[in-house]
Amino acid sequence: MAEMENGSLDLNEILRVRRDKLAELQQSGNDPFEITKYNQTHHSIEVKNNYDALEGKEVSVAGRLMFKRVMGKASFCNIKDLEGGIQIYVTRDAIGEDPYKAFKKLDIGDIVGIKGTVFKTKTEEISIHATEVTLLSKSLQTLPEKFHGLTDTDARYRQRYVDLIMNDDVKDTFIKRSKIIATIRKFLTEQNFIEVETPMLVSNAGGAAARPFETHFNALDEDLKLRISLELYLKRLIVGGLERVYEIGRVFRNEGLDTRHNPEFTLMELYQAYTDYHGMMDLTENMYRYVAQEVLGTTKIVYNGVEMDLGKPFERITMLDAVKKHSGVDFNEINSIEEARKIADEHHVEYEPHHKKGDILNTFFEEFVEEHMIQPTFVMDHPVEISPLTKRKPENPDYVERFEFFMNGWEMANAYSELNDPIDQRERFKAQEELLAQGDEEANTTDEDFMNALEIGMPPTGGIGYGIDRMCMLLTDSQAIRDVLLFPTMKSLDK
Known about the structure:
The chain is α+β, with helices and mostly antiparallel strands.
């Protein structure tokens, strides 16, 4: 933009000049905001990829003006659309004297339609020789400086629309995210799953250990919560005979912000009747491999310089064996809470007063094991104390048929052989309510309607929850969850 290049005008003056240009257009009967549509026949990448067929043919493209160089009776500009950018050659002779004057007044950021013929310049760059330039929308704000783009991360997250314009890699990440979710849906449809929707506003937020957001519904004068999980409603549908169901949707947890956590995030849960957690392992392995191949064209992914191979069989290890391997402590030899606390003290592992042996085993896992789970790994057979909705292992009722799926040291999924014994389930809800009374804000309360559903009868079922945002982070090599959320939660600027 000429005003910015010569530095002769400050920002306020630049913005005033843009509004003056708009007023002039409106007064002359050329208000761009009165245009309701444009016949866009091609995108830039289509023109470039099909040059042999389109050379000398007329096309119409539309996009944002990103560069303009005026040279007397002939000018060059670049426009950017969904799929990339293309050079436009604009001459006074081809579009006419008045339209050429109007073209010279265009600003960087304006949205334009270009009709013209496809050709190559002397430097072999595929371009369009314009025969018609139409201003479709006037940009009244300036874009960031061309060569440095929008680099301030806080500004990028707050003004994602500018981030998408200026940073092609950001746009590519979100296009990839969309493809990842579409590919998951395709995979599950082929496995005979049906997609459903369940309530976000609930009276009882259960199915996970998390503190919910609370709100008030005026029409019924009732306090409600935002869901923290999808589990209890999806299990009701298994009771209802839908056999294979899944939901991809937002859940909400009133917790902190960091590189892997946002208070609202995308969770996928699926439930399959007549299978167990081994069936969920097979499904997870196949789905991850399929999505990577379809979206990335390879089963080898690289995150932060580390290669992870989804093509090889995923490792399967029990939590007991993983803790023994990485900490040297064998919890099979620990028989009481006192012994568990003693070994925790010796290893400087912190625990809460209400923690039992199983809780301390899990704390050891988090302390000594998680960071080593780089390659795809299923960590199986968790203690019953941390798994209130999971079926016990028949041969060892202190542990449950549960696994967590790890990659890159992150938990990527959590799966169970679902608890379908309503008597056992009520006892576990009771234990959760005792924890709630002791001050654990993440504990569950008894959901009586869910209990009624279990008493109607739920078949043996495998269930799993996937963190879709973390999956997108790994498959797009994004360093923070905010990089794969179009509009992450941000602190208000006026606070």
